[in-house]
Amino acid sequence: MLVVNAQVQGFRPRQKPPQSLPCVFEPKKSLLTVRRAVWLILRHSTAQTEADLHTIALLKKLHPDLNTAISLAKDFADLLRRKQPERLSEWLQNAQQSNIRAIVGFTAQLKDDLDAVINGVTYQWSNGQVEGQVNRLKVLKRQMYGRASHELLKKRFLCSI
């Protein structure tokens, strides 16, 4: 293969390489994913840059049906950040009237356990740590199911703490 390549090189006319290559394309900008869009929208307003605000405005312009969803999401995030449970019933009403299927479903789930949601917004305490420990123990139990005695399971629980 190298012999053929060397022979062909002799037949080709020599060209001078260009001094600088012309710019054929612009570098690709990163695409706006759903996760990034949600992050931009729900980010605290003090942390948003001009580019973020421009991206949100462009998103609203390209998809006018998202205006309601964006405003409802921002209002809900603000309600949670400021711990204002008195605004929750008004937000639920507005969200229910929006006729956006995902948001209406979300409000239905919130209404099912409204007392817990109000307590979650009101109090600074959370049972997240406890739920995390329970989940960890259940995973260990599932992994050990049918494999060994209760004594080994007990030792594994104690060693994982």
TrEMBL record:
Pfam families: DDE_Tnp_ISL3
InterPro entries cross-referenced by the UniProt entry: Transpos_ISL3 (IPR047951), Transposase_DDE (IPR002560)
Ranges for domain Transposase IS204/IS1001/IS1096/IS1165 DDE: 33-155
PANTHER family: TRANSPOSASE FOR INSERTION SEQUENCE ELEMENT IS1557
Protein name: Transposase IS204/IS1001/IS1096/IS1165 DDE domain-containing protein
Organism encoding this protein: Merismopedia glauca CCAP 1448/3
